[in-house]
Amino acid sequence: MPTPTRKAQPRKRPGGRSARVRSAVLRATLEELAAVGYASFSLESVAARAGVNKTTVYRRWGNREQLILDAMLERGSERVPIPDTGSLRQDLLELATAIADSITAPEVEATARAAASIGDPDSLLVDAARRFWETRLKMAREIVERAIARGELSPGTDPAAMIEALIGPIYFRLLMTREPLDKPFVEKLVDVVAG
Amino acid sequence: MPTPTRKAQPRKRPGGRSARVRSAVLRATLEELAAVGYASFSLESVAARAGVNKTTVYRRWGNREQLILDAMLERGSERVPIPDTGSLRQDLLELATAIADSITAPEVEATARAAASIGDPDSLLVDAARRFWETRLKMAREIVERAIARGELSPGTDPAAMIEALIGPIYFRLLMTREPLDKPFVEKLVDVVAG
């Protein structure tokens, strides 16, 4: 028996079955990425983990890059706030601590590894990562710009270089040396960067 | 007709066919990694690129981790030297410049991306990367230790944090933000780190 004809795109209403499927697939995407890594990531496994048919995933996202990108953008709304305590050292400490805490979450770590792994500069994921960092670093530079305005730093200080000297080593430990992102590390790093 | 019986492991003599095959396969491994990335890397493609039978590659290396590890260790003998100019700023500038130049070589970049992509802490490649960085960072810390001994830096300076604040941002640009590793970037970074 055919289902009754419906009006106005019933499949796209918020909170409907389509939205639940999307949410389940995007959550499964980050879980699967955290579990097996980008090299072994497949749309089939994501579909199985989400409990949906694999053709649903293929039809809607097409390939793993598009799927991971969508999951990252969905997740990207949970942002690390930029502190403004009135002290350069305290702002840098809070920012570095928040980033170190955030990237040790398995799904965040997994997306960072996936983005880092791609050599092709034209990749969708690389482009998304580039835009994400452009925005984030610009926001973080305000910490340094405010310290210059307060007279805490000399006007010759380069805000971009100072923020990269803070954030870079956190990702370097995560991705390369695998040393712990603990409190003593973050404090010593801030000591070097804040001078 | 059977080949004549040979004495004393003829296949392993230096410069022999076996050594030529090994060298060709390891070179092809880094080329293939640079061309397609870790996620799409396969022993079949390496064998095709090296012009050898794929069973040779499987028999000798078994899996892609072992193969990439062997290629990295072979290549790892070409090391970035640790400068000792008598000036902290100049030492840091030379070290950062050498690292930035080195990691923009396609095969070095590809091995960094492969190592960064692996989430499993028990992976052979992760273990090799961890040991590589332990040795390298210890050597680089001597730059800071010498500056402390010369009185250029206060004895309270943390050599490890200073070296990570220098090297971390270079890998952060390569792996995450994809901004250029050019001379102005390196100079501004040294300004921040050397204070």
Would you kindly provide a written description of the structure presented here, covering whatever features stand out?
2 copies of one chain form a homodimer. By secondary structure, chain A is mainly alpha-helical. The first copy, chain A, is built from 9 helices and no strands. The first copy, chain A, has helices spanning 17-36, 43-50, 54-61, 64-75, 88-103, 106-117, 124-149, 159-177, 183-194. The longest helix of chain A has 26 residues, at 124-149. The N and C termini of chain A lie far apart (75 Å). Chains A and B meet through helix 6, helix 7, helix 8 and helix 9 of A and helix 6, helix 7, helix 8 and helix 9 of B.
End-to-end separation of chain A in angstroms reads 75 Å
How many beta-strand runs of chain A?
0
Rg of Cα set of chain A: 21 Å
- The global form of chain A is elongated
Question: Main attributes?
Answer:
mainly alpha; homodimer; disordered N terminus; about 200 residues; 9 helices
Task: Summarize the SSE layout with pairings.
The structure is a homodimer of 195-residue chains.
Chain A: H1 17-36, H2 43-50, H3 54-61, H4 64-75, H5 88-103, H6 106-117, H7 124-149, H8 159-177, H9 183-194
Please sum up the structure shown.
2 copies of one chain form a homodimer. Chain A has 195 residues and is mainly α.
